[in-house]
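Summary for the funding panel

The consortium committed to producing paired sequence-structure records for every protein in the target list. Below we show the first two records in order, beginning with the earlier of the two.
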Amino acid sequence: MRKEPTTPRRQSRRLAEKGMTPAPVPQKQEKEKLGRYLPLITKGLVSNSREERENMFSFLQEKIGRTDIALAELEREQLWKGLFYFVWITETKEALQETAKRVADILFCFFGHSEQCGLAHIGVFWKTVCQEWSRIDKHRLDKYYALSAHVIQNTFEHIGRQSWEDDTVEGCIGELQRGVLGEDGGTPYGLRVFCTKEYIRALLRTEETPTEEQRRVCLLPVCVLLRETTFESEIEELREALASIPDRKMILSMLKETGALAQKEANRREIYRVCQEIERADKQL
């Protein structure tokens, strides 16, 4: 007869049957949560002391690697508000790009926890930047343009790491469209124009080759903006950005579809004008 392996629970049961007090069965310890440290972290990130800010950022990186980083919505907002002002206090232009990159790279940690966690943090990041944008003075704008550019680049890098899986593409692009590329008026105009250009540059820099359908998914938010925007200067910026797409046949098809759906005469006219420019340029090749 096969002998059952001895486990702590079986051993405790046998001792109880003999009238002896069993030793307590060790319980599996839950991983501590990042949320418990957020008050300490956010306070340290906005300290007047550069050394304390840097130490707290390192502490945050350490805790992200060792704790349960699934946060509630309010906790995510608290974290990104702290990181927003951590960038705000960056003192030198030399440190600007490095600081922006370090903060943007935190997104990879959240994607490492789960896709849903990463997408939630992208959403809260753009929500925070859009809400705080009006408070940024002209001397600090470059900091947040740099941070936004790194977050967009990291979003496409994450898509590439996931081999351009359809769910990843749709999830990430959906968050960008609901956030900084949205046409509902919640995104500051200057930020949206800048991010649209960076978005197309990041798409063109991708090392992986997305399918035509995936490229269409990626370019759809830009086409929707072109169709819906009320700013003439933005129409011009979007036209130029879309005209830089190498796949002329695909972008021409998307622009014609966009023009057919445009309700505003000015937008429809500009869309068809860029279509004509692309067609003329193709005939000259």
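The next record, for a separate protein in the list, is shown here:
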Amino acid sequence: MRELISADQIAHRVQEMGAEISRKYEGRVPIFVGILNGSFIFMADLLREVSIECEVDFIKLSSYEGKTSSGTLHLRKDISSDVNGRDVIIVEDI
């Protein structure tokens, strides 16, 4: 298998993203909402690079019944935070 992007390149880009988010939302408290299960490792890496105060929550959705997609989206875990009027950053798996 040929490597397309190195781990160092990914880590560098995550650092850039964290710095960019920190600049853009300085003085505000955004809420990061991760889509489980796929986002949690990337989200943890990203949040380590964010230097501003923020909140974290998760949502879990499923469209699978066994190994087959049902075509219907099911909410398995909803967010517990009130996002009304908040800056929300959705983190999806990569």
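Regarding this second record: The chain has a mean pLDDT of 92. Helices lie at 7-24, 40-48.
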